Amino acid sequence: MSVYTEVGRDELIAFLGEYAVGDLIDYQGITAGIENTNYFVTTDQGEFVLTLFEQHGFAELDYYLEVMTFFFKHGIPSAHPAADKQGNYLRTLCERPAALVMRLPGHTVDGLATLEQCAAIGEMLAKMHLVGQQFSYRRVNQRGAEWRESIAEKLLSQLPAAQAEMLQAELAFQASYSELALPWGVTHSDLFRDNALFIDNQLQGIIDFYYACDEFLIYDLAVTVNDWCVDEQGVIDPQRYQRLMQAYLQHRQLNEAEQSNWNLVCRAAALRFWLSRLQDQLFPREGEITHIKNPDAFLTILQQHRDNPLPPDMMQPA
Question: CB–CB of 68/80 below 8 Å?
Fold first, then answer.
């Protein structure tokens, strides 16, 4: 959600003129996140989030908007894209594909998640995985095992010797990932604390589905655990972990294969974000306002999963 493309006021007024959303009052760039250009937009008829997609084309964006619409229609609190006067969800702005999405109430979780927030996100993730089995569109994970192997080769020579050695060992450990026989379906695959909106401990909505794809359902769960359940030291906190997992498991149980491969998948999820943040740090893109997240946070999580796998008894409902 960094600002890579600056949108002028006149350009935005012309863009909004293609929608029945009223006249522009104000807009401002959003500095959180790292992938796309985002603005909060206020008109005399409501509040919206404008996204300019820096790396996605029109064809693949249709999928993401279908995901958002599907979940919205099936009772998952997700932001619904606004259609223009011709019924299209996507238009061009500043030579980028652009979408205008309804802004949901609430705020992202800027600090550590509370136990109640962990439970709320665990419950909603399970409901997403269940209802998502009805979603018929398919999309391969662009940040899956093949990407992890490819980007690791690019980054190895840039790392300190100890980290490079650990990365090579981790790739070897995760080599069987693509052959795992685990339940899969449409996943958010980026459900961090800055992609959910709360008022106090009440979940208001889930946003930013632009990494949605077909993946193992426990990969989506692992991505969520790795971010929501950390403590002040940046490692998985047992209480947060237990609350999130119990809430999830009350709606969707894990089968034997998922439980057996939980550690491997947690490590794959941590590796994915360690590598992507390393790439952003070592090969940054230019932008007017950019926010590069610290890759060391996921190095810490990955090391924890390597040294102290999450105990299986925490994966049972109360």
Answer: yes
Name the DSSP class of 184: E
From first CA to last CA, the distance across the chain in angstroms is: 37
Higher pLDDT, 112 or 287: 112
Angle at which helices 262-282 and 161-173 cross, to 10°: 140
Mean pLDDT in residue range 153-165:
96
pLDDT the model gives residue 317: 44
3-class DSSP state of 91: strand
Q: CB count, 10 Å around CB of 197?
A: 20
Q: What is the crossing angle of helices 115-131 and 238-249, to 10°? A: 30
| Region for 22 from its dihedrals, namely left if φ exceeds 0, alpha if ψ lies in -120 to 50, beta otherwise | left
SS3 state of residue 29: strand
Which one, of 285, 303, 261, 276, lies nearest residue 143 by Cα? 276
Q: Which residues does 44 contact at the CB level (< 8 Å), separation at least 6?
A: 22, 23, 25
CA-to-CA dists, residue 246 to 115, 122, 257, angstroms:
11, 8, 18
Helices 217-228 and 238-249, interaxial angle, to 10°? 150
**Domains observed in the chain:** 9-102 (3.30.200.20), 115-315 (3.90.1200.10)
Taking the C-alpha atoms of 11, 14, 18 and 20 in order, what is their torsion angle to the nearest 10 degrees?
110
Q: Looking at residue 79, what DSSP letter applies?
A: P
SS3 113: coil
